[in-house]
C-alpha cells in the first residue's frame, strides 16, 4: 500500500467530483443569513467549513470555482501547483508547499468566483492539503465548467484548460 493509499484509508477520504479525495473535517454550527451574503446565495451558509484534500500525480483537481473565498493549507507530500484565472482573465500559478526558500507558500487564498485547478508537481507522488471555505462550502456554490466553456471565455489559456479539465 502506498503512503497516499494509507492516508486515504486512515483519514477516510472519499473521491471528489473535481478529482482527488476529500473529507469534511469541520462545519461551523453558526450560520449566516442570505441577506448578508448578497444575491449569489439562495439560502443560509455556515460561517466556515474545512476539508482534507489529497491529490496524486495520477490525477488533478479540474478547473472549477465557488462563490466563496477558499484558503489552501499545505500539510504533506509534494508541493502542489495551483492554477488560478480571475473573472477578468488574469492567470496566476502558485506553488503551495513548505520550501519557503524556493518561494513556495504554505497557504494561499483563492478569491471567490475565480476559476482554479491544482496538480501535484512531483512524479509518482501525492499532496495532502486542507481547504477552508468562508462562508461555508455548499455544493450549490460549486461550478465545474465544461472545457469548451472555459476555452471560449479564456482562449489565451487553452493549453492549461485542455490539460486540467475532464470534458
Automatic annotation (TrEMBL):
Residues 5-144 form the DUF985 domain. InterPro entries: Cupin_DUF985, RmlC-like_jellyroll, RmlC_Cupin_sf, YML079W-like. CDD domains: cupin_YML079wp. It comes from the Bacteria. Pfam families: Cupin_5. Coiled coil: none annotated. This is Cupin domain-containing protein. It comes from Jejuia spongiicola.
Amino acid at each position: 500500500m502506498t503512503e497516499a493509499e494509507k492516508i486515504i484509508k486512515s483519514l477516510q477520504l472519499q473521491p471528489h467530483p473535481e478529482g482527488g479525495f476529500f473529507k469534511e473535517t469541520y462545519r461551523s454550527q453558526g450560520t449566516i443569513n442570505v441577506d448578508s451574503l448578497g444575491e449569489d446565495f439562495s439560502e443560509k451558509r455556515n460561517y466556515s467549513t474545512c476539508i482534507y484534500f489529497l491529490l496524486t500525480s495520477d490525477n488533478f483537481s479540474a478547473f472549477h470555482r465557488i462563490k466563496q473565498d477558499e484558503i489552501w493549507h499545505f500539510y504533506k507530500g509534494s508541493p502542489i501547483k495551483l492554477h488560478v484565472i480571475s473573472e477578468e482573465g488574469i492567470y496566476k500559478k502558485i506553488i503551495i508547499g513548505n520550501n519557503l526558500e524556493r518561494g513556495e507558500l504554505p497557504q494561499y487564498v483563492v478569491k471567490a468566483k475565480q476559476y482554479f485547478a491544482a496538480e501535484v508537481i512531483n512524479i509518482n507522488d501525492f499532496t495532502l492539503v486542507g481547504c477552508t471555505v468562508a462562508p461555508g462550502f455548499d455544493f450549490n456554490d460549486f461550478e465545474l465548467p465544461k472545457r469548451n466553456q472555459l476555452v471560449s471565455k479564456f482562449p489565451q489559456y487553452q493549453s492549461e484548460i485542455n490539460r486540467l479539465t475532464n470534458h
